[in-house]
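EI: anyone free to look at a 470-residue chain?
SC: sure, send it
EI:
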Amino acid sequence: MWCHGHDHARSRGGCRLRQRAGGPRGLGLRRLRRGRSGSRMAVGRLRPPASWVVAVGILSAIDPGKPSRPPPDPPAYAWTQRGPRAVAGRATARSPSGGSMADRMCQKTQGSTSMVQPDCRWRRLSSKFVSLTSVIADDDHPLTRWLAAHLRRTAAVRASYASAFPVRRVQRPVAAGRTVVRWDLLGVAVDFRLRCAFVAPQPPPSAVAGVALAGALGEPESRRVGEALVDEYVEHLRTCGPYVRGRRWLLEREVEARLDRMCFALAWFDRVFRDGAIAPGSPLAGSVGGGDLDALLAYVPDYAVMDLQVQVKLAERALGWLRDAADVSVCRAAPTFAGSGDVGGADADLVVDRRLVEIKSTSRPEMLKDSAIWQLAGYVLLDYDDEYRFDEVAFYMSRVGWLATWGVDEFFGLLGARSSLHQLRDEFAQQCAAAGSASITGVDGHGVRRHRRPKVNLVVADRQEGAEPK
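SC: here you go
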């Protein structure tokens, strides 16, 4: 959405906006530059030609179907080794007539849904996968309020965590040049790769669902290459056998590199499933080399392959004893629980015997957030019928190679739980049922939607030429 009608005035503390008389409300165009960390920072008023342009509009004041000023030369959305050429944030503000503003910005062209900009391929479904993490991230959600009220002593867990945190170097990916590290995809890829050492060959369920969803979103070539990816991934695991006890975790050079690239490619499909959309800039939004798997794997950045190999080496030293002590039959990857459906779908990372392990590949492992603590507790509470009979819960911090473990009773005791685990599960199940019904049916029996704080639509366009994928 491109807006105009503002002058920019510099102040000592930064930049502010001054609205022209009679001009429409909204934010003007800003020129951005890259910071040392790869972020974009506003440095002054836009003067063409500009490398990075950000256009922000207040959605409630602009007709979403008629952008006030479309760009004269909209950029093509393509994935390069430097990252995506364009990033689009989904607007969640509600329009006066109802529905999402992002929905109304989409128009039907030749049987497919596309944004106003013709080069942008943004596919989405009306329903979106909801995870326990996204529920906890919403401060206004009833489950989040319940967790904050009944398991409020997260500081005690952090203190226990910090007291045992090892003094080690944090292993972070090394990206060449100005390449932006995709931490979200890299974290999923690390999870997929470490699972291979514990469980029998099987594709990640979320990635398999993302492959099917990619086809439903109008990208048949993405579905074909995704099916080929899943088949080769399983066959590759059967051939090299990283799950076989007694074998090294890190495979031979070429075999390991191939597996690492497939794990990162599966993370793209995992993101499709969880977002309900193919994001612009993703290689899945294009032709994907005519459905060729090798062409898709060529888009995987080199820093991801090197980082995954480092994570495997650290995990072998930190978790080798855990894998050797547990047979393949007692290990579960992406386990779901009896209450997973009550929160729209929730799957953990790994279950090893009676231990729940959550894999975290954050770049700041010394910091343990409340959301991560409640996420681990939430998985235990969602096991309504005690199917897994958890004795221990653990965080595996992959970038320092450290497993932080607590007994279940100790963990909930630190959180300040005043009831038994059985009672907590009953109360949590009641809260989940109440939250689910409240989001679907109102007091009068009519359908309702939970309203959230309005956000703005953000489009960042890179007009610079990027390098071709290797």
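EI: The CA atoms of residues 123 and 283 lie 13 Å apart.
SC: 👍
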